[in-house]
């Protein structure tokens, strides 16, 4: 079922990108990753879900989320913001995120959040 679902993951930590993409691919998702969050705004092929780190060098996941939610092409695509600071949950919601996950997170929690936003 997940074969046709594309997920874009943006985080400036290569270790997180590797781990998350490996697990998501094992779950059957098609994954694209980027260390530079700004590249999500110029993707030719849109994903079914965005997973964005809030604090990335060169970009802020909340700003990216707002841009995605204000763009007619991407406003319907769920955004899950992740951060090492649980204090940012409210600002993630304010930015228009569909969900928030604090690092470090359990992979099962991430998979559940992805399943939730894909069924809503």
UniProtKB/TrEMBL annotation:
One of its GO terms (biological process) is phosphorelay signal transduction system. Gene3D superfamilies: 3.40.50.2300. SMART domains: REC. Keywords: Phosphoprotein. Residues 6-118 form the Response regulatory domain. This is Response regulator receiver domain-containing protein. PANTHER family: RESPONSE REGULATORY DOMAIN-CONTAINING PROTEIN, STRESS RESPONSE REGULATOR PROTEIN 1. It comes from Pedobacter insulae. The keyword Phosphoprotein applies. The modification 4-aspartylphosphate is found at residue 53. The keyword Hydrolase does not apply. The lineage of its organism: Bacteria, Pseudomonadati, Bacteroidota, Sphingobacteriia, Sphingobacteriales.
């Amino acid at each position: 079922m997940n074969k046709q679902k594309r997920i874009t993951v943006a985080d400036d930590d290569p270790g997180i990108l590797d781990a998350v993409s490996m697990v998501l691919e094992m779950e059957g998702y098609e994954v694209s990753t980027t260390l530079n969050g700004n590249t999500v705004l110029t993707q030719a092929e849109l994903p079914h879900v965005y997973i964005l780190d809030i604090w990335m060098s060169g970009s802020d996941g909340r700003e990216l989320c707002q841009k995605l939610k204000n763009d007619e092409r991407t406003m319907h695509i769920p955004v899950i913001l992740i951060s090492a600071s649980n204090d940012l949950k409210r600002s993630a919601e304010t930015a228009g995120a569909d969900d928030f996950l604090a690092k470090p997170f359990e992979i099962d929690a991430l998979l559940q959040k992805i399943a939730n936003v894909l069924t809503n």
